[in-house]
Write a structure and sequence with these properties.
The protein is mainly beta. It contains no helices and 28 strands. The strands form 7 sheets. It has a 4-stranded antiparallel β-sheet, with no helix packed on it. Strands 4-5-6-7 form a 4-stranded antiparallel β-sheet, with no helix packed on it. It has a 4-stranded antiparallel β-sheet with strand order 8-9-10-11, with no helix packed on it. It is globular, with a radius of gyration of 19 Å. It starts with 9 loop residues before the first strand and ends with a strand.
């Protein structure tokens, strides 16, 4: 595989569970023709950099991490510059929300990041500086309440955030409340302002969100009851209306399971989700008229606990991060049918939690 600084390359940025003394953030290059993957760099000095945000235009990567301040556990965000070879250089780090963060999402202008506090029931808005370094926490929202499951939903658990296609709204998936909370995003004042909310079925536990390319449909993968909920989205107001919820598991499966990630193909025809326990990737087609899902297949994730996965930007591959077997598994995507085929390519990486394939 030839390295070239003059042409865009497909880089994979991987976050993981790690101690500060061990590698936690990895950079790989992937050959978009044959799926070959090679390690370019890795960064230490971060505790559990489990999720990443990537600003490809400005060659920056942002990782969440855990630290302590005044004896208390607190989240932080670390900014990295990525050079032409693919090497990481830390720019700076700033503390964010207590007690920790579980997810980071850059807004579509890459001027702000929102961090989600699963354990604290809070979300924080972090300003990013013109040079790509991390600025200060400029706003914080605290959720209140509980859901239907007395064990998993005894309090709020914001798990992730998705920005609307026009960048006007930040949508928070709160697993503990069975709610998607919509905030108006105000970059001029650095604020998140409550706008509205919508509910999943009781006990569903929304985890991650994916917008359809048409900007009118939103899909929530629900961790607690292993399902996917489909919402109509009003771009003018940010309001959501629940339309349908379907299971992610085969009807005959009776074992334990929690879901993880959801993603939609660039053409809007296919939706994928991951099952942890069943250890599979589920594939649906999306009705182009009404947005409803039809099950196509379940495919082994080729490892235990597929906590995250991602489609490559060209749509040719899906890469699954199997945390418990310490590997990335590469699948080819058939262009028309969207079906997945394991390529027999894997990459050994310790406890991978997040994989971000980006043209760089």
């Amino acid at each position: 595989m030839q390295l070239s600084a003059s042409q865009p390359r497909l880089l994979l940025f991987v976050g993981s569970y790690a101690e500060t003394s061990d590698p936690g953030v990895y950079v790989y290059e992937m050959d978009s023709v044959n799926g070959e993957i090679r390690l370019l760099d890795q960064a230490t000095g971060l505790k559990n950099p489990t999720f990443l945000g990537v600003d490809a235009e400005h060659r920056k990567v942002y990782a969440i991490s855990e630290t302590t301040k005044e004896g208390e556990r607190i989240g932080e965000v670390i900014a990295f510059d990525v050079d032409a070879v693919g090497k990481l250089r830390e720019l700076n780090r700033e503390v964010t929300i207590r007690p920790s963060s579980s997810h980071i999402q850059l807004d579509r202008s890459c001027r702000f990041a929102v961090v989600s506090g699963y354990h604290g029931g809070n979300v924080g808005l972090v300003e990013l500086q013109a040079d790509g370094s991390v600025g200060r926490l400029v706003d914080e929202r605290q959720h209140e309440g509980q859901g239907a499951d007395p064990v998993r939903q005894d309090r709020p658990h914001p798990h992730s955030v998705a920005f609307s296609p026009d960048n006007r709204f930040a949508l928070v998936a709160d697993l503990g409340l069975d709610r998607l909370v919509v905030y108006s995003f105000e970059p001029e004042t650095g604020r998140l302002v409550y706008q509205s909310e919508a509910s999943t079925p009781p006990g569903a536990g929304p985890r991650h969100l994916a917008f359809h390319p048409n900007g009118q449909w939103l899909y929530s993968i629900n961790e607690v009851n292993s399902s996917i909920s489909f919402f109509h989205y009003d771009a003018a107001t940010g309001k959501l209306a629940l339309q349908d919820t379907v299971p992610t598991l085969p009807a005959e499966y009776t074992g334990e399971n929690t879901t993880a990630e959801v993603a939609i193909s660039a053409d809007g025809h296919h939706l994928y989700g991951s099952n942890r326990g069943h250890d599979s990737l589920v594939h649906f087609t999306i009705d182009p008229v009404n947005g409803r899902l039809t099950l196509v297949e379940h495919v082994s994730s080729e490892g235990g606990h597929p906590r995250h996965f991602a489609l490559t930007p060209d749509g040719m591959y899906l890469i699954a991060a199997n945390r418990d077997d310490n590997l990335l598994a590469v699948f080819s995507v058939e262009p028309e049918s969207g079906r997945l085929t394991f390529t027999d390519r894997t990459v050994s990486v310790s406890k991978p939690v997040c994989v971000k394939p980006v043209w760089f």
